[in-house]
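Dissemination and training. As part of the outreach component of the grant, students in the summer workshop were shown how a complex can be specified as a set of sequence lines and then modelled as a single object. The example used during the hands-on session is reproduced here so that future cohorts can follow it. Participants entered these lines:
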Amino acid sequence: MSFQQKMRGKEASVALRKCQAMQRRADATVSLSDGRRVVNFSDNDFLGLSWNVEVQEAARKAVRDYGSGAGASRLVSGNSPLYDALEQALAEFKGEEASLIFGSGYLANIGVIPALAEAGDLILADKLIHASLVDAIRLSGSDFQRFPHNDTAHLARLLERKRAQYRHCIIVTEGVFSMDGDQAPLQEISHLAEKYDGVLVVDDAHGFGVLGQGKGTLTAQGVSPKAHILQIGTFSKALGSYGGYVCGAAAWCEYLLNFSRSVTYTTALPPATLAAALAGLKVIESHPQDCVQPLNNAAYFCEKMALPAPESPIVPMVIGENEKTLKIAEILQRQGYLVGAIRPPTVPKNTARLRITFSASHSKAQIDGLVAALQAVA
Ligand SMILES: *Cc1c(COP(=O)(O)O)cnc(C)c1O
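and obtained this result:
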């Protein structure tokens, strides 16, 4: 297929993507290019920390103290003292031995997974894992099998049937699923990983900062740190900054620093980004009770919409067809509400959806307004 044919295919299936210029504002709104202001129910700045005064000031100070860019890889001269400070603070907060910072959550995934598994190893992953994990698994060259979403009985059968034929086995899932907002049954999956001598990798990009008093989905489910569990996450969502991390046993983090190519062959994060993440972490640590506000807002919305109680601040409303989903999102935008219209290949075919995310910054009036607009569309 030619490049033009591929683009026409995207157009025909109403899956063509475009970037819209918009300026985010502090009150959970964005200004569109035509000057209109709409309420933002589409981003992952769950705690509004990208607008927190202490976080912003920490970033400004770091620019003055350390410069605007890192200048080199972490393993050369880019490893500012902020890395140590943030890695230690993060590990302590999560109750883990150590952590290792990457350039983003995407880079953490494509660094960690291929460092853990290669050809001759087995990866078992939930059907609905994030695209960055799929890319990471492909890059690893390992044998890869998916299990139906959150189906631990199926996972157990796969382990029973296949585990003995492989040297290493990695189980990959998410704490909170990014397009569905539900949680993985981590206690059961952890038991299976331990029983079959596997490593469990949990991408908790959306649980960190929001669930378990900010510590994440494992804490929320009462799963304590374990030698066979690695948690991956990001500073780009609830922490309002940028950058990714893995945390777990110190020996794992040391190993991953040596074997993750996405740490070695890329420039270190800008100091301001690290300083902002560290300041965001301190805000969460000192106000753990505020972390639940995004989930409370989602629960308020779901109650009004007669939807099942949410497991995270991400609420999907599955529409099905791409065209209809996009149309509803456009109508909502005209009414003053920005929600994500998520289409394949981000989600499975025929499950295009509105992805509505709730932040601590949303007011009851803003949520009531969205409810009214949605009820009018229906
Ligand atoms: C957002 C997300 C990522 C990517 O994190 P970035 O820091 O934005 O690169 C990875 N995994 C999951 C599950 C995510 O939701």
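The two ends are 39 Å apart (CA to CA). Students were then asked to discuss how this feature might be tested experimentally.
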